[in-house]
Amino acid sequence: MSIIYLLIPIAIILAGIAIWGFFWSVNNGQLDDLESPAHSILYDDDEHLIPDDAKPPKPAEKPE
Amino acid sequence: MNASEGSLHQESGCFHCGLDIPAGSEFYTVIGGQPRQMCCPGCQAVAQVIADGGLENYYKHRTSEAASPESISASEQLRAEFELYDHHSVQSHFVAELADGSRQATLVIEGITCAACVWLLEHHISSLEGVIAASVNLTNHRARVQWDEQKIHLSDIFIAMHSIGYQGHPYHPDKEEQLLEQETKRAMRRLGIAGVFTMQIMMLAVALYTGAGASLETDYENFIRWASLVLATPVVFYASRPFFQAALRDLRTRHLTMDLPVSIAIGGAYIASIWATVTASGEVYYDSVSMFTFFLLIGRFLEMKARHRTGKAGNALLNLLPASAILYTDDGGEKIVAANELQQGNRILVKPGHTIPADGVIVKGSSSIDESALTGEYLPLTKREGDKVVGGTINVENPIDLEVTQVGASSQLSSIVRLLERAHEEKPRVARLADTVSGYFVTAVLIVAATVGLVWWQINPDHAFWVTLSVLVITCPCALSLATPTALTAATGTLRQHGLLITRGHVLESLARATHIVFDKTGTLTEGNLSLHNTTPLAKMTAQECLDIAAALEVHSEHPIAKAFHRLSQKHQVIAADQLKNHVGQGLEGSIAGKRYFIGKPAFATQLCSQQLDFTDAPDTEGQWLLLASETEPLAWFGLNDPARKQAANMVQQLQSMGLEVQMLTGDSSAAVKHIARQLKIDAVISGVSPEQKLQHIQQLQDNGAQLIMVGDGINDIPVLAGAQTSIAMGSATDLAKTNADAVLISSELVRLPQALRLARRTRANIRQNLGWAILYNLIALPLAAAGMIAPWMAAIGMSVSSLVVVGNALRLTKLDRADRLE
Fold it and tell me: Name one Pfam family in it (chain A) (predicted).
């Protein structure tokens, strides 16, 4: 059990590093926009990267 | 693209902006392989640019409709205006020159409605030749753009934004803005500290709880306690500082709010835990302390975000004034200077379509001035030599020379802002239910704890401290402090989903209590722009022929009256008119196929006719009437009015049936006021009042005990919005109005108001139930704690259960009334 004398201080130090990283990101403006990055990952503007045979079949288009 | 194809995408509204499509209009853009119907050429053009740029995915990704773009016809004028931003003296205020020779600027962008807008803007701007980087922030609607001045000018970037339906302005951060930013960052750091350390402490607490009793050796237990102490200290001293500060302020002002019991709970439990740790006795509460802080901070953070959301457009006041002005130099030349360098006595030129940069007197020329930004009224006023004009208003028709009389703080626009500050100070404070209850509660708890402590001191001094402490911790107003915030958060979220954004904490409470609701007219109860509702031909021509002639005459005018005809000319084949001549304040003349026509005021239009007409000859007295005449005879009357919003009558009726007194307060003094009032069945109408009088009126009502809601939109409404107990701004309102309102009706759907009021009333009931439960729990737990019969684990379970009950009850508010949901 005496391992906790080592592990708990390490945990505290790790938490301290996490806080330091968080402060850095806040001050650096990384968290200024909390909304759009969450959405932007969903924008599939990578259609040209998908090989044709992997694309789902297109629904029949109505005539123009 | 053929409109007659049967494969048309059936939409209820415009594919781009979602507005209703006027009957008979035929605007289509092919998007995603299908023609989509648009409401106006503006939307059509914007959608075309988006489609041509290969950015059609925007329509797939977006979660809300785009803002309807302003008319795009004035592009020449607009280009000239944007080009002012290319001048060095203007740029010096917001553009930075980077080391590699490129330039960088922060811009505020109007018209962003959802995350897809950000995607669209970033892709569109980045694809421009010469733009090095472009990033758009959805939260504060700011764009950071870096470009190569050799290849592209800033004005081109502005025009590119405009072409996809967004308006850019230079961003000048002011002091308040910077403070807001610091506040946000501080709140985030607090949240981070509380979050990370709470997790650690909870982990250690598991060991303490499971090991309680024999299985955990005392040495280990003490070590874990000391570790928890180290972790909890920053949470108490850094993260919970706002609570302590607010509690101190409460004590000074002798107005008890929830912050005091919260501070007592956090501070008391922390000190007691230190005592227990140092003496290796009793119980520690580090987990409760940090968890409690974390939850409360989350609530505050969300509230703060909502509050900042409306203040996003930068210093909105500056945006009203143009960045530059054209100054006459001493040798008679013209020079472009930054608007804030203007001085009293300067002579400046204001071209048509430009915003007037400072208060002044017209020394040459005459024009009509659109003062809607100040007065909210959409019809421009005619101004001649010697008349005063106000900075921030728009010159509509002719170039004018001004002598500057007031700049900066003494200008009329600034005086409105000062009026606003005064109104803010005099705003009645809403006594909040939770605060009142907690005020009594805190007093009661302190008295009980002191009594218990004294009694136990007599019986058994060794136990006195611990029993007193457990009384404080048990009554630790967990449920009590959760009772209000959870209900408010749930209701606020529901309202936001349905288009009402609440930005101040007291709104729900005061909505529930409202007795009076006061509306501005133009732009609030009405659409805020003129449309044609009546055409009465007088001669042998058909209505359609008359309309075509009128549309041809009005085609180049930017006057709001002319804009009503613009829609028509876009719909039908237009005949071309030439020799167009504008008579300020009178009307227009022009010739079509060799015949001269006049349109405007009756006396003007019939000046060459044998038969002279005036306004009394118009079909009725409601709205605005225009006469079209040829050289020989009057041809047709055109009736224009500003129609009431569709749901307005329904809303007024609902509000009245809920027992509220509905009033209309407007700066307009025309006959249209009566007409609208009759149409909407509003009895109490005050018309023709200035912003000061509006403020006086509502203050008088409030002094007489009215619980008042003010709904408005214009700059002229800002003081009254700030002075009203509760204020709601329309979604289409100016940014300054939105920042100063307690809530914003984003969708501008008036019928949301009665729904919000009903939900607010339910929220009030819900809070009462929650408080009732919390007090009941305390009444049971308190005697037991006072008797020293409660073990820590019982307290923990009791506290959790009572909190869960409260949260569960509050979650009922995430749905609207059943009847409202169906709409």
Answer: FixS
Instruction: Identify whether residues B519 and B653 lie together within a single domain.
Output: yes
- For residue B568, pLDDT over 80 is answered with no
Residue B717 catalytic? no
Mean pLDDT of all residues in B777-792: 74
In 3D, which of B711, B705, B553 has the Cα closest to residue B630? B553
Tell me, yes or no, whether B81 and B24 share the same domain: no
Q: CB distance B118–A36 less than 8 Å?
A: yes
d(C-alpha A11, C-alpha B298), whole Å: 24
| Containing structural domain, residue A3 | 1-29
Q: Are B48 and B118 in contact (CB under 8 A)?
A: no
Q: Strands B661-665, B516-519: parallel, antiparallel or unpaired by DSSP?
A: parallel
**Residues B539, B636 share a domain:** yes
- Contacts of residue B477, Cβ cutoff 8 Å, sequence gap at least 6: B258, B261, B262, B265, B438, B441, B445, B774
CATH number of the domain enclosing B352:
2.70.150.10
Residue-number span of the structural domain to which B330 is assigned? 321-405
The active-site residue out of B359, B435, B520, B717 is B520
- Pick from B189-198, B218-227, B627-636, B804-813 the range whose average pLDDT is largest: B189-198
Read off the CATH number of the domain in which B536 is found.
3.40.1110.10
Q: Which residue of A19, A27, A34 is in closest CB contact with B196?
A: A19
| Rounded percentage of chain B residues whose pLDDT exceeds 70 | 81
Kindly state whether residue B615 falls inside one of the protein's structural domains. Answer: yes
- Is there a domain that residue B757 lies in? no
Q: Which of A12, A27, A36 sits opposite B230 (nearest CB)?
A: A12
Residue A51 lies in a domain: no
CATH of the domain at B102: 3.30.70.100
pLDDT at B314 over 70: no
At residue B2 the predicted structure's pLDDT band, cuts being 50, 70 and 90, is: very low
Do B555 and B624 belong together in one domain? Answer: yes
Q: What is the pLDDT of residues B703-761, one digit of tens each?
A: 888 888 999 887 777 788 888 888 888 877 766 677 777 888 877 788 888 989 999 89
* B638, pLDDT greater than 60: yes
Looking at the fold, whether B19 and B63 belong to one and the same domain comes out as yes
Report the candidate in B713, B741, B705 with the shortest Cα–Cα distance to residue B726.
B741
Tens of pLDDT, residues B442-501: 777 778 878 888 888 888 777 777 677 667 666 665 566 667 777 777 787 788 777 787
State whether A26 and B119 contact (CB < 8 Å): no
And the tokens for B106?
Answer: 């922060």
Please state the domain count of chain B. Answer: 5
Residue A20 lies in a domain: yes
B119 vs A contacts (CB less than 8 Å): 36, 39-40, 43, 45
Which of A5, A12, A44 is nearest residue B231 as measured by Cβ atoms?
A12
Chosen from A39, A47, A49 to mutate, greatest number of chain B CBs within 10 A: A39
CB contact B222 to A (< 8 Å): no
Say if residue B271's pLDDT is above 80. Answer: yes
CB atoms within 10 A of CB B649: 16
Indicate if B738 and B651 belong to the same structural domain.
yes
In SS3 terms, B55-88 reads as CCHHHHHCCCCCCCCCCCCCHHHHHHHHHHHHCH
Closest approach of B164 to chain A, Cα-based (Å): 18
Q: What are phi and psi of B657, to 5 degrees?
A: -70, -15
Is residue B350 classed as helix, strand or coil in its secondary structure?
strand
Tell me how many domains chain A contains: 1
- Let me know if residue B773 belongs to a domain: no
B556/B400 Cα distance (integer angstroms): 19
Contact A39 B192 (CB under 8 A): no
Contact A12 B119 (CB under 8 A): no
Q: Is residue A61 part of a domain?
A: no
Residues (pLDDT < 50) of chain A are 61-64
User: In this structure, are B512 and B598 located in the same domain?
Assistant: no
